[in-house]
Recover the amino acids of this structure.
């Protein structure tokens, strides 16, 4: 009997790839909200002269009048017929999303079926985070991933630019950040850790690292803007900041021996120099990144040295604090106010809700979903990026088959199961801005490996963020992924080999009582 059950599961799990060669809205990722397909095939002209764009027409405006503002801005109608292609949208952004849906159809097959598509996103934030601190991959890599996000109709790239393992952004007022702590001995994070966290400089033949110059950032921002993608810079504080203390020990916590502690993990919250540093850095960040949001980290402060540091103790006394944990809230609130006064909104990891936070701050929920659920219920806007579903440094297939990764298996199927509104009462749904996949790079030192972890799971994140929940179905999605993987590989992305994914990863637990399990 067991043998029989297993053989059914095996046959159910074999991917069924449609043999029809043509392309159309039923083949793309994310799946559009509404579409119809009719008899006939169209081939796009290479010069684009057969694509006509109509912005802000009264008919289209009436059609999208009931949508939330963010969805209306990205909404489009796409009509492919005998005479070519028509695109209707309210904004350039909407027209761009249509062009990318069309481009994906073309990449899948030059024969595009006549069709009509009416489409708009479910969530306003559909993003991927790249960890440029632990492994610096540089602007060409970032631009290549922006191209992929654009094709997937995603709209946010979050760059984790600073962390203990390396500072990655030119700051004119603080040259040590890029002269010294952007370069380490130890190509991989764990090699560097094993050597005792040595930093060096660019001239050292053993140096590993790099940083974005201001011109690099301007180039990335302009490139992303052409694709209607926002870049969210993350300047981490007060934890994950050992590199700052190493570059400027004069602002680090002071030990009981009266000496600075440059190996401290956290910034010193007692020293006014820390705030001068952060505010000066953020002024330069504001100048470079023209977006509403700036991410200030806020996760995993160790807080150990705060208890011994004379400056931190003095701050606690002055502010009437009874526990050193309160220093974290003090710093986050002070920086939040600073950025708010300059017209920016703060995003922070979900720890920031634990120490008192103004309502305007946006919470990025990473420790599973509870932090996000709680923050939304307390009136905060939330971006869901739970490590229980969308952490892209986790294994995507069996441990024995994969390069070393983190945690439990988060296969394509597992990621796709996620619904960002899971557990959120309807009255708080509007606080969920969307979702994001995070690619932490402690175990991912090279660009090709990063792409391997990103694709196809980023396809799932794109579809969760765009397609209505009740229209998503895993096996249909997986079939589209297999086609898109082939296209991505042809474009030079080093994707995971979905064609050889294990049965376990494809089907999850081999149980017939799992409501998401379907026999094809
Ligand atoms: C995190 O993964 N520490 C945000
Ligand atoms: Zn201190």
């Amino acid at each position: 009997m067991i043998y029989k059950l297993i053989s059914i599961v095996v046959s159910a799990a074999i991917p069924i790839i449609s043999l029809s060669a043509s392309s159309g809205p039923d083949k793309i990722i994310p799946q559009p909200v509404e579409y119809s397909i009719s008899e006939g095939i169209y081939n796009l002209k290479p010069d684009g002269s057969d694509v006509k764009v109509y912005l802000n027409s009264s008919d289209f405006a009436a059609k999208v009048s009931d949508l939330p503002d963010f969805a209306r801005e990205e909404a489009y109608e796409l009509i492919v017929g005998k005479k070519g292609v028509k695109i209707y949208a309210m904004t350039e952004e909407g027209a761009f999303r249509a062009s990318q849906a069309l481009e994906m159809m073309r990449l899948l097959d030059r024969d595009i079926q006549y069709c009509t598509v009416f489409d708009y996103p479910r969530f306003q934030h559909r993003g991927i985070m790249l960890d440029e601190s632990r492994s610096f991959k540089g602007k060409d890599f970032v631009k290549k991933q922006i191209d992929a996000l654009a094709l997937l109709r995603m709209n946010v790239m979050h760059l984790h630019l600073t962390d203990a393992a390396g500072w990655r952004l030119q700051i004119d007022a603080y040259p040590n950040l890029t002269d010294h702590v952007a370069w380490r001995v130890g190509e991989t994070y764990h090699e560097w850790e094993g050597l005792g966290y040595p930093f060096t400089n660019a001239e050292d033949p053993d140096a590993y690292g790099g940083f974005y110059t201001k011109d690099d950032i301007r180039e990335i921002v302009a490139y992303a803007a052409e694709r209607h993608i926002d870049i969210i810079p993350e300047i981490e504080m007060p934890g994950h900041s050992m590199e700052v203390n190493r570059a400027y020990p004069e602002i680090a916590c002071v030990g009981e021996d009266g000496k600075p502690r440059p190996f401290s993990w956290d910034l010193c919250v007692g020293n006014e120099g820390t705030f001068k540093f952060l505010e000066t850095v953020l002024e330069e960040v504001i100048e470079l990144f023209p977006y509403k949001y700036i991410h200030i980290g806020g996760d995993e402060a160790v807080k150990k040295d705060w208890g011994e540091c004379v400056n931190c103790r003095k701050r606690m006394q002055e502010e009437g604090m009874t526990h050193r944990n309160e220093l974290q809230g003090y710093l986050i609130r002070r920086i939040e106010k600073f950025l708010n006064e300059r017209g920016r909104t703060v995003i922070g990891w979900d720890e920031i809700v634990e120490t008192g936070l103004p309502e305007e701050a946006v919470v990025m929920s990473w420790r599973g979903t509870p932090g996000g659920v709680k923050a939304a219920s307390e009136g905060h806007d939330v971006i869901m990026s739970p490590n229980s579903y969308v952490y892209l440094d986790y294994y995507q297939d069996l441990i024995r088959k994969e390069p070393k990764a983190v945690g439990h298996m988060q296969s394509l199927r597992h990621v796709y199961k996620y619904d960002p509104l899971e557990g959120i009462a309807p009255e708080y749904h509007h606080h969920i801005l969307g979702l994001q996949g995070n690619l932490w790079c402690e175990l991912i030192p090279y660009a090709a490996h990063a792409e391997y972890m990103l694709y196809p799971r980023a396809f799932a994140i794109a579809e969760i963020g765009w397609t209505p929940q009740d229209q998503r179905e895993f096996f249909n999605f997986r079939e589209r992924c297999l086609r898109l993987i082939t296209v991505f590989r042809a474009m030079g992305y080093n994707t995971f080999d979905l064609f050889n994914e294990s049965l376990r990863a494809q089907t999850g637990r081999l149980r017939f009582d799992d409501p998401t399990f379907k026999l094809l």
Summary: Confidence is low (pLDDT under 50) at residues 1-19, 510-520. The first strand starts at residue 34 and ends at 42.
